[in-house]
Amino acid sequence: MNSHSSLARSQNAELWQPKRNLSKWSEQAVKYIFATFALISVATTLGIVFTLIFETFEFFQEVSIFRFLTETQWTPLFTNAKFGIWVLVSATLMTSFIAVFVALPVGLLAAICLSEYASPGLRRWLKPILEILAGVPSVVYGYFALLFVTPILQSFIPGLKTFNALSAGLVMGISILPLVASLSEDAIYAVPQSLRQGSYALGTTKRETITGVVLPAALSGIVASFVLSVSRAVGETMIVTVAAGANPTLTLDPRVPVQTMTAFIVQVSLGDAPATSLAFKTIFAVGMMLFLMTFILNVFSFWFVRRFQEKYE
């Protein structure tokens, strides 16, 4: 009896051996394929960064960093060229601030509503509907701001120009609102129910539980969504290109046309400037400034999440 069972086990082992080898080779192949895709992503990022660095270095061979950081005009396409980058930075920050002023409070309140007040059935309907806004092309948002929002604002805001930073910022806030709402809602929804139940057991109301327990527990995720949304606003292109205009003016008045960094890159990339000219090289210097701004925001987000993240068993 023992000899027959040993023979059967030996035959089964011989039958399973090729399958084990095939499974092992499949695992190795999948591992290398995934590693290749990861390396492609890293190599693409490094290629972009090195391209920006190299071309920006070429730009600063002809224009001093001092002029780049101290001049108050931006006219690189004119004969008497000026290269004051703060003209574009101020316009970018102004439109981004307006967008953040709209998106952050509205998005956070929408996230609280979806997570804490809406029923599960209503949540399953409202969240996809809200996220549809993220699928609208940005150029559509731009023309919506120019042809719909601006005429409405002109009816009660004196001196508002056809192209202006205000309508561009407001509509840009609507475009990034789904990002804030969706990511914040995920962070709030992930807070364990035990924390809520413990708060209710102490006699607190629902509002007090949300403001005193749930939001502090989800703070790292909420801040991460805020920073990601700000980065998205800073890098927005078509809305500000269509609605904010192309007038590089150093101003804090949102009623007048301005030009953001991304809008300038679009203007030069249309093909009017020769590829080897100084005017063309300015887009890489502007791109490097834009990259540094978003990089700093992302580093801050990473640090904040790691520093204040709550972990629950």
Report on the structure:
The structure is a single chain. The chain has 313 residues and is an all-alpha fold. It has two domains: 2-61; 86-308, Orthogonal Bundle (MetI-like fold), CATH 1.10.3720. It is 75% helix and 0% strand. The chain has helices at 2-60, 65-70, 86-117, 120-131, 138-154, 165-189, 193-201, 206-217, 219-234, 238-243, 261-269, 278-308. Helix 7 (193-201) runs antiparallel to helix 8 (206-217). It is globular and about 70 Å long. 30% of the residues are buried.
Q: What's the structural blueprint in terms of helices and strands?
A:
Elements: H1 2-60, H2 65-70, H3 86-117, H4 120-131, H5 138-154, H6 165-189, H7 193-201, H8 206-217, H9 219-234, H10 238-243, H11 261-269, H12 278-308
Helix pairs in contact: 1-12, 3-6, 3-9, 5-6, 6-9, 7-8, 9-12, 11-12
Shape: globular
What is the CATH superfamily label of the largest domain?
Answer: MetI-like
Nearest-integer average pLDDT? 85
Compute the separation of the termini in Å: 51 Å
- Assembly status: single chain
Number of strands: 0
Assign the CATH topology of the largest domain.
MetI-like fold
- The biggest beta sheet, please? none
Unreliable stretches covering 5 or more consecutive residues: none
C-alpha-based Rg, rounded: 27 Å
Throw out a few tags for this protein.
313 residues; mainly alpha; 2 domains; 75% helix
Short description:
The protein is mainly alpha-helical and 313 residues long. It is 75% helix and 0% strand.
